[in-house]
Amino acid sequence: MTNNRFKLEALFSDNMVLPVGKAFRIGGQGPIGATVSVNVNNQVQTTTVDKQGQWVCQLAPVNDSR
Question: Are 26 and 56 spatial neighbours (Cβ–Cβ below 8 Å)?
Fold first, then answer.
């Protein structure tokens, strides 16, 4: 990645539905060496952008709260 901006993988968008009861990953691109924190349903995962400008966080299953 040639700039200092973060970007989510194209799969992710506003108001998307996350899988219920299944582990999933969220990833994207960012400045090399930057720290990324993902917070989903009070579950926080932190990672570092790799030398190719990529980052991935693995999240545990989210329960349906209905």
Answer: yes
